[in-house]
Write a structure and sequence with these properties.
alpha/beta; Rossmann fold; 7-stranded parallel β-sheet; two-stranded antiparallel sheet; 35% helix
């Protein structure tokens, strides 16, 4: 069975987690909020294919152990969808290192805010030669001369399209003109 790890899978990526379950993946979800994790679990009939990993990903040792445990219990991880806040700069490296130690073929969809320098972020990322790295950049929406950030539903829809299309770089919403961002 295919195994996906979703970081941030109970918030703006909740619909991505559900979609992956519907696609036949076993989904391990790293979450920091137990209430939202429980709410997500209530939305699916595939509870036996979902492994909740309640962990603060700023704690590298605990994060590494949780990822290791889900691999032991559910098999190698073939897909990572990761939205990681800037206050946890080592989290993606910890995850990638643990996953790549057990997985030969890995796809990583890295979800980034609109202000991130995509080329610099890719250079800083550490992955195996057998992994494929994709970036999903979150922008904003301008409608009727008013700008706003993307909704969780818009973000999830865009990430799902990136997963389907396997775009090397996908922008959801727009990032220009920069001075119009909310």
């Amino acid at each position: 069975m295919k195994h996906a790890l979703v970081v941030g899978g109970t918030g703006m990526l909740a619909d991505v987690s559900i979609w992956l379950l519907d696609q036949g993946y076993h989904v391990s979800i790293i979450a920091r909020n137990s209430v939202r994790l429980h709410q997500l679990m209530e939305r699916t009939s595939f509870k036996n294919k979902l492994t909740p990993l309640l962990v603060d990903y700023r704690n590298s040792d605990e994060l590494q152990q949780q990822v290791h445990t889900t691999i032991e219990q559910n098999g190698e991880i073939n897909l990572i969808v990761a939205w990681i806040h800037a206050k946890a700069p080592d989290a993606l490296e910890v995850i990638a290192k643990e996953v790549s130690a057990h997985t030969a073929d890995l796809e990583l969809f890295h979800v980034l805010g609109s202000s991130k320098d995509l080329s610099k972020t890719k250079q800083e990322a550490t992955f195996t030669k057998d992994s494929t790295y994709y970036q999903v950049r979150l922008g904003f929406v301008i409608k009727n001369n008013y700008s706003r950030w993307l909704t969780n539903k818009e973000i999830s829809s865009g990430v799902i399209e990136a997963l389907k299309q396997k775009d090397t770089i996908r922008t959801i919403g727009q990032i220009e003109p920069w001075e119009r961002r909310p």
